[in-house]
Design brief:
heterodimer, A: alpha+beta, globular, B: 257 residues, 9 strands
């Protein structure tokens, strides 16, 4: 029971009260009594009331029962400073990565005690300055709660085939996004009943204190606030970071781009952004390969699964490098998601899109010039997290990793890229061919009940030291016509003059971005009109 | 080949007068002398209306004409207006080519009188106007927009995905229902945001008048007031006074519920 200060005592400063003391006061006293008894140094009575209202809404003092102060000493890995150069979109991706890892882990361990669908929800309440992140990946047990908060602690290990940033991801997200946070979780016990719901409170003092890792854990009195198997993060957002429509749009784009392939291959995972009514769709436009297939021409995309082993702690571990290569329908750049380059994935999670700088330099056969603008594909490394060559924030390719050496040097991989480089050069040189590749194929298709990237052919090749020296590379072959049979260059240049207003109208009609007045936009519009006019009925 | 003379029906000027009357109550800029930049065509009927409604506060007029066939007629009309005491000049080209000269701190009223849709393709041009200080606090911007057939909802709505998300408008039905009254406001907001001036310039939408354009197609006329301040998307897209000259209905609309 809390006794308010008596009338002859100076009112206490509310903001200097420890968090737990504040919760006790909120539980015991009404707002009016608190106003009489405590001083609020950051505003007037109205501000104080608003602060009390928000604190009650976030920490629900009347629905919790104190358990303990938890938290162990931090591990050797430290993330001090690591979250500062994280973008807000990347922070949200870290939370999604963790949810997906937790879901797959649970599914593998308890297939009959796992949600049919992984549902992730991300929402914002700008009026109250909060963000909510929810998943139903299974919840977190009481003794694993530090893994949510303390850097250096994790449910996974370096050899797990996961996508989350090992030991740091979710924690970076909290530090990046929140002034204060509440984490509510209710573990779905696969073997019995008696599930408790726990609440972790991370107030502003805790978040700002670089040395404090211990955190209060409460039991939720009214468990109906959360479903079994759910975890709910509520963040009071940092005020120094304004949230504008373009930021939200960027976050949505990043989520869709990062998880398109994973969502296609796992349709039971659904991510909801700003609405519970619809989940985010996959971006077909990311993979706009030509479906050119004629008597003497086959430029449809191909996939090869390169099987290898890599050592870790003196033990060899299996990995699969999935490479899909195809030909774009145009050399136009900056057409939204339809751009040239190689996408880099780790366990189906995109970490670098449209690489145009690193990978193209590894294979001399992919020359400079217009031909490379036809290049489109993915390199997707399946295997232990420790082998995936992403950096701390899963934003860049770490070229110092052993797997990159394998990608650069292995003769089978080089031959596969070489085969496609020939095709790109051919298409670029032969105008009659480049006019026949304009029709895109569907990006994804369903084969034997499984949805995936639509490829004409898929093969498996063993590489590295496990490959027998006499083994030939059985790689997919493309089909290109005999050049002597093709007519020599017989291009015709068509010109059209329009007013600026007509230009804007045409851009709107053909879906060409913002009608910028530059040669890139003009070329995009010309390509779009040409494709439209030449389209067969 | 463009029509040699561009003549609009009375309905357009009826709509213009309704909007100017509303602006005169809500915005002080029309009660002071201002320069008027427009796409007046060959008849410059809007100039007449603006002069009358603002008690001749138009200090000068600059009209843009981008059709060669109409340019001589526009020049002729400009001379007539000048002779009647309204200094008017015509420039060949796109209205977005307009730039203030050095030291020009005058208040402006702009009439972006397009026949087409004032959609996402205008964002970059308006952004440049903000960036190059053509649009300033104290100015008024009138905009027409075609409300008829368009190249498909996905293309039309795509430039404003962020704005819809921010306002919590997530279903496509609701987005379509709100698009016609609010799309010019979204263009102005996005252009301002991209210029980085959303903390310095406040945009308010003073009204939306729907009317039947040339050939009977639906058109919208919108007015935007610029003042010093901060633009909040929620405020810009709430309490919009709208009226329909065909049905004589009027309403107050907001994007966010």
């Amino acid at each position: 029971m809390t006794n308010p200060p008596t009338s002859h005592q100076q009112p206490l400063n509310w903001l200097t009260l420890p968090h737990q003391k504040r919760l006790e006061v909120l539980d015991d006293l009404s707002d009016a009594d608190i106003l009489k008894s405590y001083e609020y140094t950051e505003g007037n009575d109205e501000d104080f009331l608003l602060h009390l209202h928000r604190t009650r809404a976030l920490f629900t003092p009347r629905n919790i029962e104190f358990v303990e102060i938890a938290g162990k000493a931090p591990g050797k890995d430290t993330l001090l400073g690591a979250y500062r150069d994280l973008e807000r979109s990347e922070a949200i991706l870290e939370l999604i990565d963790n949810s997906i890892d937790a879901y797959f882990r649970r599914k593998a361990r308890y297939p009959n005690a796992c949600a049919q669908e992984l549902l992730i929800f991300i929402g914002f309440d700008f009026k109250n300055g909060t963000m909510t992140y929810e998943d139903n990946a299974g919840g977190v047990q009481e003794d694993s709660l530090p893994n949510l908060v303390i850097p250096g602690f994790s449910d996974t290990d370096a050899l797990s085939c996961t996508i989350g940033s090992y030991k740091t991801g979710g924690k970076k997200a909290i530090f990046k996004l929140a002034n204060e946070a509440r984490i509510l979780t209710r573990y779905w016990n696969p073997v019995g009943t008696g599930e408790e719901a726990f609440v972790i409170h991370l107030d502003a003092q805790w978040i700002e204190d670089q040395d404090e890792y211990r955190f209060p854990v409460f039991k939720l009195k009214n468990k109906s606030e959360i479903n079994s198997g759910q975890t709910i993060y509520t963040f009071r957002l940092k005020e120094q970071q304004p949230w504008t429509p373009d930021v939200l749009e960027h976050i949505k784009d990043e989520i869709q781009k990062t998880y398109t392939l994973l969502l296609v291959r796992n349709p039971n995972i659904k991510i909801h952004f700003m609405t519970r009514e619809e989940h985010l769709s996959c971006l077909d436009e990311m993979y706009k390969f030509t479906g050119a297939l004629e008597d003497q021409l086959d430029l449809r995309p191909r996939r090869v699964l390169f099987k290898a082993t890599l050592p870790f702690d003196d033990i060899d571990h299996e990995i699969t490098i999935e490479i899909v290569l195809g030909c774009r329908t145009t050399t136009a750049t900056t057409r939204g998601p339809d751009n040239w380059g190689i996408d880099l994935y780790g366990n189906d999670r995109l970490f670098k899109a449209y690489d145009q700088d690193d990978i193209v330099t590894w294979y001399e056969s992919i020359t400079t010039g217009n031909a490379r603008l036809y290049l489109r594909g993915i390199i997707n490394i399946h295997g232990p997290n420790v082998f995936i060559p992403w950096d701390t924030h899963k934003r860049h390719l770490n070229t110092d990793r052993e797997i990159v050496t394998l990608l650069r040097k292995d003769p089978a991989i080089r031959e596969f890229f070489g085969e496609w480089a020939k095709a790109y050069n051919f298409v670029s040189r032969m105008k009659p061919i480049s006019s026949r590749i304009g029709r895109p194929q569907e990006a994804f298709s369903t084969v034997k009940g499984k949805r995936d990237l639509h490829v004409a052919e898929s093969k498996s090749v063993t590489i590295g030291k496990t490959r027998r020296k006499t083994q030939d590379f059985d790689l997919p072959k493309l089909k290109l016509p005999d050049t002597k049979r093709l007519a020599s260059s017989d291009n015709v240049d068509l010109r059209m003059r329009v007013t600026k207003e007509e230009y804007r109208d045409l851009c709107a009609r053909f879906g060409v971005g913002r009608a910028e007045e530059n040669s890139t936009s003009y070329r995009q519009l010309a390509d779009a009109i040409r494709s439209y006019a030449l389209r067969k009925k | 080949m463009a029509e040699p003379r561009l003549i609009f029906n009375d309905r357009k000027y009826h709509a213009l007068n309704l909007l100017l009357a509303r602006c005169a109550v809500l915005d002080a800029s029309l009660r002071r002398p201002f320069r008027y930049v427009t796409m007046g065509g060959t008849e410059m009927g809007d100039v007449w209306n603006v002069r009358w409604c603002t008690c001749n506060n138009v200090s000068s007029v600059l009209s843009y004409e981008n059709e060669r066939e109409r340019f001589p007629a526009a020049i002729q009309r400009a001379s007539e207006l000048t002779a009647l005491g309204c200094p008017t000049s015509v420039s060949f080209g796109d209205i977005y080519n307009f730039r203030r000269s050095n030291g020009d701190d005058q208040q402006y009223v702009f009439f972006l009188d397009f026949c087409g849709s004032f959609n996402g393709t205008h964002i970059s041009s308006v952004r440049r106007w903000f960036q190059e200080d053509v649009l300033r606090p104290g100015d008024l911007v009138l905009v027409t927009s075609w409300l008829g057939r368009h190249p498909g909802w996905p293309r039309v709505l795509a430039p404003f995905e962020g704005e819809f998300l921010y306002l919590g408008i997530v279903t496509s039905d609701r987005r379509k229902a709100l698009y016609y009254p609010f799309h010019p406001a979204l263009v102005m907001y996005r252009a301002l945001l991209e210029s980085g001036q959303e903390g310095e310039v406040e945009i308010s939408c003073l009204g939306f008048v729907k009317y039947s354009g040339k050939g009977g197609g639906p058109m919208g006329l919108y007015a935007f007031q610029l003042s010093a301040g901060v633009t909040d998307l929620g405020a810009l897209t709430s309490n919009l006074g709208t009226c329909d000259t065909k049905t004589l209905a009027w309403d107050v609309l907001s994007m966010a519920e």
